[in-house]
Amino acid sequence: MKKLVKIFVVAAFALGFGVTAQAQTRSDNMSASATVFDAIDVEKVADLSFGSVMKGTKKYVAPGAIKGVSSDNGTESIAQAGSFKVFAGAGSSVTLSFNTLANLTGPNSKTLPIIFNQNELGDPVVSLGYGTETSSLTQLNLGNNSITFPSTTVDSKNGTYVYVGATVNAAADQESGSYTGTLTLTATYN
User: Which residues form the signal peptide (predicted)?
Assistant: First the structure.
C-alpha cells in the first residue's frame, strides 16, 4: 500500500507540473499598419527675374507675378516671379527647405542684396509662400519650414505651388551687369 501511495503522489506531482506549465501559456495579438503616400517631388515652373534694375533703387517682384512689363522709376522691363510645384501625400508632415540666398553675384564677384518677405518700401509682405492662389499664400521663410501638406490638386496629383517673389536693392554705386543666384527648394517627408 505504501508503494501505491508513493505512485499516486508521484503521479499527482507530475500532473500538477503539467497543468501549471500549461496554465502559464499566454498570447495576445497586435495589428500591423502602414500609411502609403505619393512620392515627394519638386518641379521648377518659372525662374525669378527682376528684369532691369536702376542703380540706387529697390525693385520688388510680387509672388505669382506673371511675366510682363514692370515699371521701375519710369523705365519698363520684363519681370517675373518664380514658382515651383511640390507633390506629396495629403495631410503628411513635410519640411520645405530653402538654401539661404542673401545676395545675387555679378561682375567681378560684386553682390546685389536680395530680400524675401519684404517689399521695396521695407514693409513685411508674403513674397515666399505656398498655396494654390497667390492672394492667400501661407508664408515660408529661408531655411526649414515644417508644414502639414495640403489636400489640393495640381496636374491631377496632390500638390501645391510655392511662389517666390523678392526685392533686390541696387546701391547707387552698384556695378552694372548681370547678377545671378540659385534658390533651391528641397521637400522632405518628416
Answer: 1-23
